[in-house]
Amino acid sequence: xxxxxxxxxxxxxxxxxxxxxxxxxxxxxxxxxxxxxxxxxxxxxxxxxxxxxxxxxxxxxxxxxxxxxxxxxxxxxxxxxxxxxxxxxxxxxxxxxxxxxxxxxxxxxxxxxxxxxxxxxxxxxxxxxxxxxxxxxxxxxxxxxxxxxxxxxxxxxxxxxxxxxxxxxxxxxxxxxxxxxxxxxxxxxxxxxxxxxxxxxxxxxxxxxxxxxxxxxxxxxxxxxxxxxxxx
Length: 232
Hints:
By secondary structure, the chain is mainly α. The chain is 34% helix and 5% strand.
């Protein structure tokens, strides 16, 4: 057997020492084995490998390696995964459908819609509605506001507790709009307010905005009730 230096790759022949004559570096010289010793080592390794494979085959519930080369196994695994995924999707969908929508959640959703409508109103007219105009200006043209291009909501409704939403004009840049909550009294701890970022709807919606006089018929704008006009 001929050897090479692991550092400089110089040929060393059969008789090697621990120091390379070409680069002078110290190296580890493998021990020589007689042919019979090498064959005995190979036989021992093969015997160990056979015994290992036999022990694996004797273990209960262990699948043979050849099974994973069968296309039917992969096809069956795919079917099982599809069935499990379908069951999980149906269970998740049922859980979402059973999620209770509380009156407070509905009120917050309505408040966010009002805040966005107010932001669009200001985008067109340059200002928020006055106290006299109130939230009704979102569904009905006040006739005194230039560039009004509504309606900005289809229907002005009460909160889930049958109380009109409270609106106050802007004092520090943004108006105040809120629900009185379950106690139907303003200024208490259960009052609900929209997200202030909703007053800035951005300009992405402007590309799809259609003027009021060009919209298709069918938008229902109900007249404002006397109670709401009084509160606003």
